[in-house]
Amino acid sequence: MNEEQVHIDGIVFEKKVSCRELEEINIRLAKRISHDYCDRMPTFLVVLNGAFMFAADLLRRIEVECEVFFVKLSSYQGMESTKRVETLLGLPDDLENRDIVIIEDIVDSGFTMGELRRMLKEKSVNSIEICSLMYKPDCFKGDFSVKYIGKSIGEEFIVGYGLDLNSKGRNLAEIYQMKNDKTKE
After folding, report:
1. Per the domain annotation, does 185 fall within a domain?
2. Identified catalytic residue from 57, 99, 105, 108
3. Which of 30, 53, 153, 178 has its Cα between 20 and 30 A from that of 164?
4. Burial class (CB in 10 A: 0-12, 13-18, 19+), 176
């Protein structure tokens, strides 16, 4: 589906990121990660549900031996953050001394990633890096960096390619932003 606009729950969204740009992002990030981990084996931790499409496309392009695990955290209800992170599918038990790369769909305030990083440090991992498809630098309040960024955007609300509004819109092949969003770039 390559529409210029989509409607979800009565809200109109306009195309923001095309399939072609998503493919270019995945190729660029996979090359960089593969280069950075050429002498060690990364353990990818995919944050569900939003990162599943991004992770699948990205991981198919990773050129080094790796491990892949999944975690499911929740801090959003609709379009708003609850400021409370719930663990729905927890971390694997044995992560000690592993080089972790978290694959996330979007980092905005950094609250969820900060909590996940805290949980990982308790597991005595060797290193933690974050790979995020989308990043909202104007919203970010974390005390850590996001090493691998697919695309920086403003404060607009987006859906598609795994990102959702009340679990809808994840299946869209492209990314759309809310039409008439006052934060629109």
Report:
1. no
2. 108
3. 30
4. buried
Q: How far is CA 119 from CA 71, 95, 105, 143, in A?
A: 11, 11, 19, 15
Domain assignment present for 184? no
pLDDT digits (tens, 9 = 90+) for 2-45: 689 999 999 999 999 999 999 999 999 999 999 999 999 999 99
Structure tokens at 67: 């491990």
Domain count, the chain: 1
Predicted model pTM: 0.89
CB 175 within 8 A of CB 54: no
Q: Is 108 in the active site?
A: yes
Read off the DSSP letter of residue 126: S
Length reported for the chain: 185
The CATH number of residue 15's host domain is 3.40.50.2020
157 membership: H or E segment, kind and range: none
In angstroms, rounded to a whole number, what is the distance separating the alpha carbons of residues 51 and 28? 17
Burial zone of 58 (CB within 10 Å; 0-12 exposed, 13-18 middle, 19+ buried): buried
What is the CB neighbour count within 10 angstroms for residue 30?
Answer: 20
